[in-house]
Each structure stands twice: as structure tokens, then as C-alpha cells.
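for the record, two folds in this file. i put them one after another cuz i was lazy. first one right below, seq on top, C-alpha cells after. the second one comes after a little note so u can tell where it starts
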Amino acid sequence: MTLQDELTIDMTMMGLSHGHMQPSLMPRAHRHAEVELNFTEQGTITYLFGGDRITVGTGQLAFFWATLPHQVIQVEENTIFHWLTIPFSAFLRWRLSPTFVQQVIRGTCILGELDFTLMQAQFRQWRNDLQARTEEQNQIVLLEAEACVRRLATGSSTTNTKNATAPPMEPHLLSKVDQMASFIAEHYTELLHTKDVAEAAHLHPNYAMNLFHKHIGMSIMEYITQYRLAHAQRLLITTDINISEIALAAGFGSVSRFYSVFKASCGLLPGAYRSGLRLKPS
């Protein structure tokens, strides 16, 4: 693997899709534009999300927005798991609790459990439905996936106790938010300004800032910084790449800016963070 491979992670598009497998270790992180729902039918699987290790055990569900680089770093022998990817725009249309949506968008991997037998049958049914490749079957999968995620959100400690529902978002506004978030996920390692993100959605910068903050829960620049930090955390933990190179590869304009933002967010300087959390070779 080249240095450039380590520093960059291409975005892929998977759409509405399903997989069922015995997972293996991933040589590098990957990311894609959809939200993802995982179910571990047997065994355990451990992911690295940015700088966080997340273990999904037997019978557990994991739900996350897969634009954040993630990598399988540990798998118990004979593990079997399922995944379902769901277009981000479909997730926004579900109008889930604003607190839950913002947790997902901010990069939290939501863990929970529902009835094991039901989930085992449900994921297998989704595989059969999607193999049919019809719009009607796709809609059935989306409706059932929405119900599943709603149950997961209801039982999640990240949700509002009042189970508030997000206000309706007009389809054209939903599309604009989706376009801006997707543009950031694709280009966060580049030099970006608010006007660049606004232009991607054909909006005035001031209107774009207000719309983004209203529905995402943070400013455009805060959101970009979150992606850059997660990218840098992953490289600090998994590589020996020089910290200055990591800062620039993650999209920070200067090394001093990177140190300042990293310390404010993580409570440690990058070198100390690397020393404390570095993955040991297997």
C-alpha cells in the first residue's frame, strides 16, 4: 500500500444494497455515501471509526453514516453478519428524532438490540427482496428498514426522551441538505469555504449556512472540521505517517491550526493521542 493510499480514501456509492458474509479484516478504511445498518448474527466484529473502536456482538445492531471512514480491525472466528446500506436522502425523509439524526450525522455509531429471531429473518428477507430488483420490493425494504431504525432510535440513549419528530422538510430542501453534506464528505480534505459548499447546492452562502445549521445541527465549517479530525485520528492510530503530513492530508490548512483544533477537540496533542491509542500490530 502506498503513502497516497494511506492518506486518501475514495468515496463510493452503494445505493440500497444488502450483504451477508463471514467478515474479514480490512487492509484499509473505506467509506461510502449511505447510512448503514449492521446485524451480527454470530460472533463479534470490531470497527475503527475515526479514532473510536466499536465492537458489535452477537444479536447487536449498529447504525451509522458510512461517509465516516471505517475499518474492520478485529473479527471473532466464525462471525456471521449482515449489512444494509440505505441512501442518505431516504434516511432524511424518515423524519426521525432530531437528536437521533444529529447523533448519526455527527458520526456516532448507534448500537442496540431488537428481537434476535425477527432481525435474523428480516435481514434474510431483505436480501431476497433486493435480489428481485423491482421498485416495489425496494420500497418494501425501505419501509421495513425505517421501522427497524425507529425501534433502534426509541431504545437509544442518544434520543430525546420526548421522542420528538423532526419538522417536515420540503423535498427540494432535503435535496439541498443532502447535496451539501455529500459534497463535504467527498471534498473535506481539500481547501473548502462555505461558498464552495453553497455553490454545490446552487444556493446563496447565507441561505446555505442557515439551512445546513437548521437541519444538521452545526455550522458548515464545524461539520468540515469534524470530518478532518476523524480522518486525522484514523491516520494517527493506524500509521507511522508524520504528523505534519497527516494535518495537511486531512485538509487542515496549516500544522499549527491542526494542533490547536485537535487539542481543543480531543484534549490531547496529536503525538500524545497517537501514543495512547496506537493500534498494536496483530
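(here's the note) second protein begins now
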Amino acid sequence: MESFFRAQSPIDLHMHSNRSDGTDSPAGVVREAHAHGVRTMALTDHDMVDGWAEAEAECLALDMTFIPGAELSTTGGPGVGGMHLLAYLFDPLEPELASAMLEVTGGSESRIRQIVERLQEDFDIDFGDVLAEANGAPPQRPHIAGVLVKNGYVPTVDHAFSEILSSSSRYYIPKTNRGNILDVIRLVRGAGGVPLIAHPVGRSGGVMPLKNLEILLDAGLAGFELDHRENFQNPEGLERLHEYARDYDLIVTGSSDYHGDNKENRPGEHTTEPEMLARIIEQATGNEPRYPAHMRGTV
């Protein structure tokens, strides 16, 4: 299997479409990935799988391998903080996980409307413009950021998050109905999937204590997304996680976190080693990769 993925490299396991907070359609994400040389990719929209079928069809048309995935929102659990969880190759129809994902996305529009109402105290922004920016997808903060850019308040979406929409700003409203990270890890495992923490030190300046790691591993965590541009902002924390990965033989991935025009990240800017993807596939029982027709007999 590993030799197959060397033929299907580079591998990018973290990409978003306009089904959540990206700007490209699922097929558009695939075409952009292909144009940047990526040959195996995962679509990991936030708390939803709506784009899988379209992305899979485009991958197969371009002789690419498709890995079903999602990025799940969580709160903190006992001893650990809230983080985003990348889940791969899970069964999307498994009732408990499907229900948990729907709980998060179901409250999206109300939350975004409340954030816009807070912003309206200081900015000329309309909720209708945010819905137009979302273009049929559940509205999320990057869609607000896009409107702030269009209205001239900030030059880029990244500036909007750092200057206006950060979780420490007075406009911020937390997501409701997120499960704590330990429960969500268990739900992913229960659906036959493989859970890894996304950009684990990219949004904090600290170092994960060993006791926190052990709590996460006991819940079923498989590893970390370490080669991600945000992680390099915290070199000490990143090095510690590399040490943990070596000591505990964890799965380590690298990804772009592509969002189309909503972030500067480009497909394939960081990638996953074939042997790490092979380990994800070996652990998964809920779903399978979608291979190009002419390569299915080689896996």
C-alpha cells in the first residue's frame, strides 16, 4: 500500500470547500489541488460531509485518490482544552457521530447572526451580505471576514480574524452544542474513523503537558497534524509534540488547510508522508479511500 501512495503523492489531508468556510466548490477544491500537484486529498469541511460525493467524483475524473474526512469542532475535556479534530474514514451514517455533527451545524446561522449584530455597533455590515458570501453554505465566521474585507475594513481575511473576529474579541460568540474533545474522539472511533488534532499548537503559545497527551491517547487519539503553517508560530510547542510523536509512535500528518480565497494557504504547501496515510487507512474500519479506476487493483 505504501508504494501505491508514493505513486499518488503529494498527499494533502486538510482542505475546505464552500460547503463550510472555503470559497471553492468541492469540485473546485479538487481541481485547485490537482493544479498544485496534489494527487491524494481529503475534503475536511467543518462538521459536515455534504461535499464528499462531488469531491470524490472530481478526484476520480482526475485520477486522484479521495480520502473522506471532516474537521470537527470541540470544547475542552477534563485536563485538556478545546481543539479542532480531524477525522478520517469514518462512517457518516453512524447515528451518534452524525447526530453530534448536526448539533453543531444546526446552530450556525443563529450564532453568526448574533456576531453580526455585535459588529453592527461599530461596522457597516449586514447579515444578508454574510449569507450571500456563504453562497448557500451554513454561514460561518470566515464569511463575516469576507464581508469585512469587501467593505474595506481589513485587507485580508487573516487580518479580519487577528484584528476583529478572534475568540478574545468582544464580538465573539462561542459555538454551541460542541462535544468535549474526549467524547468526540470516542465518537469518531465508534464510527470507525481515525481522529487527529488539527494544527495543535498553532493557536496557543504553550506546550502540551504529558498528562494531557495521555488523557487524549486514552480516549483514542491517533496523532497530530504537525506540518501546518500555523504550528510554526510556536516552535517550542511544536518540538514537544514531535518528541511525543516519536516516543508514542503517533501518526503525524502535514496539510495545507486550504480555504480558497479565505486564507493564503495553498494546496500542497505541507503534505503527509505515504506511510502515515497508510497507517490511517489501516486503523480505519468505517470507510475506505476512493481510488482511481486504473489503480484499484494495485492497492
